[in-house]
Amino acid sequence: KQGVTVHVGDSLNAGDLVEVRDNKDPNPVVTVGAYDTSKAGEIQVTVTATDASGNSSSTTVTVNVVEKEEEKDTEAPVITAKQGVTVNVGDKLSSESLVSVKDNKDPNPVVTVGEYDTSKPGTISVQVTATDNAGNSSTATVSVNVVEKEEEKDTEAPVITGKQGVTVHVGDKLSPGSLVSVKDNKDPNPVVTVGAYDTSKPGAISVQVTATDKAGNSSTETVNVIVLEKEKPEQKPEQKPEQKPEQKPEQKNAGITSKEQGNGLLASNSNDVAK
């Protein structure tokens, strides 16, 4: 027969499974082979008919075993996420390390772990799904802390080298690059911060610079800075117009002449006659 359906725990009889006819024996003996209806699912049952002459034939019948309506499983598995799950970078995750699962009827629900990435340190969320044999399923999200392997763990702080002879002018701002150079064993770009400072007046000040890498290691360096007055623009001396020397009026001595004669000087006056 087709479409044979029974409930969990039911017994099977030949009349429910097959119809039998024989050419001479009106009542052949019909036997049902071993079967198991203890759980829901599809089973195969062998039925054999033997007539009075000893002739026999067998057929296999498909039987669908279902739960009784009042016993039908509609309850999903219960997933309990584990707390404080920690793995190393690159580790694979198993369902057992993430959750515990219980179901009201299925002792072994199928548990699957969703996609995840443990390639770098940090906190990730992983979905875990449990499905029982009745098709009921539930999902839980588990928080997982991914850490570096102990031998690879970064515990080394950045190295800060303070620059020498740093000089700025009054009112200037200070940048990390003008004060220090920084190197770290693993982090190519540590975060560098400059502490409070005051360049509002000339003098020597001390400035603290801190570098922190992505692993949280930090170091601090104090840099000495000289604050100078701003240079005033050079002023050229005022040029006065050139003054020409004052010319005195030419003095005339009327009638006076001089002659150089020999070793002496002969002076004559127009009013006198040399004798």
Molecular structure report:
There is one protein chain. This protein folds into 3 domains: 4-71, Immunoglobulin-like; 78-151, Immunoglobulins (Immunoglobulin-like, Sandwich), CATH 2.60.40; 159-228, Immunoglobulin-like. The chain contains 3 helices and 18 strands. The protein is mainly beta. The model is unreliable at 254-275 (pLDDT under 50). Helices cover 4% and strands 42% of the residues. The strands form 6 sheets. The chain has a 4-stranded mixed β-sheet with strand order 1-4-3-2. It has helices at residues 14-17, 95-98, 176-179, and strands at residues 4-7, 29-32, 41-50, 56-66, 78-81, 85-88, 99-102, 110-113, 122-131, 137-147, 159-162, 166-169, 180-183, 191-194, 203-212, 218-228, 256-261, 264-269.
List the helices and strands and how they pair.
Blueprint: E1 4-7, H1 14-17, E2 29-32, E3 41-50, E4 56-66, E5 78-81, E6 85-88, H2 95-98, E7 99-102, E8 110-113, E9 122-131, E10 137-147, E11 159-162, E12 166-169, H3 176-179, E13 180-183, E14 191-194, E15 203-212, E16 218-228, E17 256-261, E18 264-269
Parallel strand pairs: 1-4, 6-10, 12-16
Antiparallel strand pairs: 2-3, 3-4, 5-7, 8-9, 9-10, 11-13, 14-15, 15-16, 17-18
Keywords:
about 280 residues, mainly beta, Immunoglobulin-like, 3 domains, four-stranded mixed beta sheet, 3 helices, about 40% strand
Q: Give the strand order of the largest sheet, numbering strands 1, 2, ... along the chain.
A: 1-4-3-2
What value does the Rg take, in angstroms?
A: 57 Å
- Tell me the distance between the termini: 189 Å
Tally of separate domains? 3
Tally of helical runs: 3
| Main beta sheet | 4 strands, mixed
The arrangement of helices and strands along the chain is: EHEEEEEHEEEEEEHEEEEEE
Organism: Bacillus cereus
Protein name: Adhesin
InterPro entries: Cadherin-like_dom (IPR002126), Ig-like_fold (IPR013783)
GO molecular function, one term: calcium ion binding
